[in-house]
Specification:
single chain; mainly beta; 14-stranded antiparallel beta barrel; two-stranded antiparallel ribbon; 3 helices; 10% helix
């Protein structure tokens, strides 16, 4: 099993090297919503979760992490971005026989409504652009500490017309008492075609580590190698306050994904509350001159 993990890791590292070679070639692509953090926990930790995805949301973060789910779990996240833009994510993870877990999920980004003008500047109704993706994933435990996973996505983008495409994620997760490591290649596909023009997807490779410290602390860092821009770093921490009837989490993070944005950017913080099978999470992120974004999430585990 360890040999299989090394083979998969080698393949993913080759993908990372290729993405790194393309990192200096900045460009404009389609489906940029796939770059957004999918839940409040990852948003609060600066998006450093490749080596520590949790629950059903692992489907989007590193599909290998799906294999850690031992009971069915459903999760929902809502993010309020700038102006009227909102982002919703929902997913479900269901354990199967043989140390495997299947996950299904959807992402939906709404931009609000805009006035539409024809070529002569005459009002021609309104536009309601939106982006969406439907995802099917699978995670498998090769042994107690090694997990692999993959996911396929059906992506759709609507402006005045509609474009669609498909993509795939691959992931590997190796857990340990002193350190966990994860790697995932995201959004690999041909791109979306609008009319006669094709736009590439935001391909990205993440290399992450997570280090537990004194039982209640978790420190994490991710190195990102996007195809459409320079490499960037994400770092975050999580602390657990264990109470008699519940557990509270405090989180903070920082990333360099938008270092060229003026004003305060890249800083994030949040908290979580866990009681029995219900988890509630909140986070905010600073985005420079664009202001702050707010993320709220709910998770329910259907078992102990």
């Amino acid at each position: 099993m360890k040999k299989n993990a090394r083979i998969i890791l080698t393949l993913l590292l080759c993908a990372a090297a290729r993405a790194g070679n393309c990192a200096n070639v900045a460009g404009t692509g389609a489906a940029a919503f796939l770059k957004l953090p999918v839940d409040a926990r990852s948003a609060g930790m600066g998006e450093a979760v490749a080596a520590g995805p949790r629950g059903a949301m692992a489907l989007f973060q590193n599909p290998a992490g799906l294999a850690e789910n031992t009971v069915p779990e459903i999760a929902f996240s809502h993010a309020l971005l700038m102006e009227d833009i909102s982002y919703e994510v929902m997913c479900l993870a269901v354990p199967l026989h043989g140390n495997s877990v299947i996950g299904v999920g959807a992402q939906y980004l709404r931009y609000g409504s805009f006035a539409s003008l024809d070529n002569n500047g005459v009002p021609a109704g309104s536009l309601s652009p939106r982006d969406s993706a439907f995802v099917l994933g699978y995670g498998l435990k090769l042994d107690e500490d090694v997990m692999v996973g993959g996911a396929v996505k059906s992506i759709s983008s609507k402006i005045s017309g509609t474009a669609s495409g498909a993509a795939m994620d691959l992931g590997l997760l190796i857990t340990g008492d002193e350190v966990s490591a994860g790697i995932t290649a995201q959004n690999m596909g041909k791109g979306l075609k609008f009319d006669k023009e094709s736009s590439p997807l935001p391909v990205n490779v993440k290399l992450g580590v997570m280090i537990p410290y004194q039982e209640k602390w978790h420190w994490a860092a991710d190195f990102n190698f996007p195809k459409d821009g320079p490499a960037w770093l994400a770092a975050g921490a999580e602390y657990a306050f264990v109470l008699k009837a519940a557990t509270l989490f405090g989180r903070a993070g920082y990333n360099t994904a938008a270092v060229d944005t003026k004003s305060v950017n890249g800083i994030s913080a949040g908290f979580g509350f866990v009681r029995k099978g219900l988890t509630v999470d909140y986070a905010f992120r600073t985005m420079g001159v664009l202001g702050s974004t707010h993320h709220l999430g709910f998770t329910y585990r259907l078992g102990k």
